[in-house]
């Protein structure tokens, strides 16, 4: 039906501009899409739609989870040589029980909506990767305070949610903690006066220049 | 002739001595049962004392020991984790002892507003304590004990 309308335009197509041809194509597609199907049964369309939806969602989620692995994060030398190297000597990487945190455990929210929001933010990180914002050690160190401040702000805003995914205040047995830790947790954590990140900065990576950061000298 | 037999005797004696030395395993008390030419198994690492209770100093000038664990504490140009509790402005919240006022002095005895750079690296003098028993025991006697030994009954 649309091919007939296309015929007169076939000859001078070479002369027409690219934008004009794009507009024609879009109009033609729109004409097809707004009309009911005259070929496929409604059932076929519905089932095909569901199947396509499942496939699209599966592929989307698989791709999303693929970007949510330590292997993906440390695929860039910026992460591998700086923050990942520093993580290795901390208790979140090596410890007596062998339970360890990977990059997304702390840096990507586990909840779906928050995760998608964070993934959209990460487009800035793709930008940084493409334009080499931190592609040398010196550049990384120059940006370290800014990068760390982003993460501190995020943890502060969500009440250290990513810490609490593993470290629950309810399950914390303060009698098993050192006296110093148990006093501090009772005074500041259980009362809600402070959140994890207020005291536990620099536990997984080295700290930037801390002058001016509250609680530091 | 006499000289020659002497040399032979000496050679024999040396040979016998080295033979008996290599035959027996030489050990040292400090190293435990491992022979000197072997590297014995490393003793297990013991935990650091972590009570947070102040320990008495053995002599007045002794840098106080750290009665808690400091694993992973960053002390470098960028930050000083110790000072986030022990700095003057932080002690009200942390209830930790304040860094000694002597640490605010530069080497000319002038007081600065904050910790003098030469006193910044805490672990140069202050160290955590391990619960291991040392192979060589310490026979240090503090001054009070020494004085009371000199004059029984005590004289201050």
TrEMBL record, chain A:
UniProt: heme 4 binding residues: 196, 199-200
Cofactor entry: heme
Alphabetical keyword list: Cell membrane, Electron transport, Heme, Iron, Membrane, Metal-binding, Transmembrane, Transmembrane helix, Transport
Entry comment on modification after translation: Binds 4 heme groups per subunit.
Cofactor note text: Binds 4 heme groups per subunit.
InterPro entries given in the database record: Cytochrome_c-type_ET (IPR051174), Multihaem_cyt_sf (IPR036280), NapC/NirT/NrfH (IPR024717), NapC/NirT_cyt_c_N (IPR005126), NapC/NirT_cytc_sf (IPR038266), NO3Rdtase_cyt_c_NapC/NirT (IPR011885)
Transmembrane portions of the chain: 39-60
GO molecular-function terms, A-Z: electron transfer activity; heme binding; metal ion binding
Bilayer topology term: Single-pass membrane protein
One GO cellular component term noted in the UniProt record for this chain: plasma membrane
Domain of life: Bacteria
Annotated GO biological process: anaerobic respiration; denitrification pathway
Similarity section: Belongs to the NapC/NirT/NrfH family.
Role played: Mediates electron flow from quinones to the NapAB complex.
Protein name (database record): Cytochrome c-type protein
Originating organism: Bradyrhizobium centrolobii
Lineage of origin: Bacteria, Pseudomonadati, Pseudomonadota, Alphaproteobacteria, Hyphomicrobiales
Automatic annotation (TrEMBL), chain B:
Gene3D superfamilies in UniProt: Flavocytochrome C3, Chain A
UniProt: heme c 2 binding residues: 103, 122, 125-126
Gene Ontology terms describing biological process: anaerobic respiration
Subunit-structure text: Component of the periplasmic nitrate reductase NapAB complex composed of NapA and NapB.
Keyword RNA-binding on entry: no
Residues holding heme c 1: 68, 82, 85-86
Signal peptide from the UniProt entry: 1-23
Annotated organism of origin: Bradyrhizobium centrolobii
KW Signal (keyword) present: yes
Highest taxon above the source species: Bacteria
Recorded GO CC terms: periplasmic space
Role summary: Electron transfer subunit of the periplasmic nitrate reductase complex NapAB. Receives electrons from the membrane-anchored tetraheme c-type NapC protein and transfers these to NapA subunit, thus allowing electron flow between membrane and periplasm. Essential for periplasmic nitrate reduction with nitrate as the terminal electron acceptor.
Post-translational modification: Binds 2 heme C groups per subunit.
Protein name: Periplasmic nitrate reductase, electron transfer subunit
One Gene Ontology MF term: metal ion binding
Family, per entry: Belongs to the NapB family.
Location of this chain's protein in the cell: Periplasm
Region listing for Disordered, in residue ranges: 29-65
Pfam families registered for this protein in UniProt: NapB
This protein's UniProt keywords: Electron transport, Heme, Iron, Metal-binding, Periplasm, Signal, Transport
């Amino acid at each position: 039906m649309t091919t007939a309308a296309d015929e007169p335009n076939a000859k001078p197509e070479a002369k027409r501009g690219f934008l004009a041809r794009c507009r024609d194509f879009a109009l033609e597609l729109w004409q097809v899409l707004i009309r009911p199907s005259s070929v496929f049964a409604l059932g076929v369309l519905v089932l095909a739609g569901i199947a396509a939806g499942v496939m699209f969602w599966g592929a989307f989620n698989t791709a999303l989870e693929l970007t949510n692995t330590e292997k993906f994060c440390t695929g860039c030398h910026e992460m591998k040589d700086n923050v990942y190297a520093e993580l290795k000597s901390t208790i979140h990487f090596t410890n007596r029980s062998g339970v360890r945190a990977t990059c997304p455990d702390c840096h990507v929210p586990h909840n779906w909506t928050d995760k998608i929001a964070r993934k959209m933010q990460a487009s800035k990180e793709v930008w940084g990767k493409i334009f080499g914002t931190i592609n040398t050690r010196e550049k990384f160190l120059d940006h370290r305070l800014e990068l760390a401040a982003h993460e501190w702000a995020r943890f502060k805003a969500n009440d250290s949610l990513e810490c609490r995914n593993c470290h629950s205040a309810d399950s914390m047995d303060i009698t098993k903690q050192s006296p110093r830790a148990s006093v501090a947790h009772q005074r500041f954590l259980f009362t809600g006066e402070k959140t994890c990140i207020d005291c536990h900065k620099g536990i997984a990576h080295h700290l930037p220049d801390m002058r001016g950061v509250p609680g530091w000298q | 002739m006499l000289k020659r037999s002497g040399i032979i005797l000496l050679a024999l004696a040396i040979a016998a001595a080295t033979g008996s030395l290599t035959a027996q395993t030489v050990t040292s008390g400090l190293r435990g049962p491992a022979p000197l030419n072997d590297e014995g198994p490393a003793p297990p690492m013991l935990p650091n004392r972590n009570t947070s209770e102040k320990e008495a100093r053995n002599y007045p000038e002794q840098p106080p020991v750290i009665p808690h664990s400091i694993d992973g504490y960053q002390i470098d140009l960028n930050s000083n984790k110790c000072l986030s509790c022990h700095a003057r402005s932080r002690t009200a919240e942390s209830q930790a002892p304040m860094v000694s006022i002597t640490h605010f002095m530069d080497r000319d005895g002038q007081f600065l507003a904050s910790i003098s750079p030469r006193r910044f690296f805490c672990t140069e003098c202050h160290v955590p304590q391990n619960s291991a028993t040392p192979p060589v025991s310490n026979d240090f006697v503090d001054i009070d004990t020494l004085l009371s030994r000199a004059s029984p009954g005590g004289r201050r």
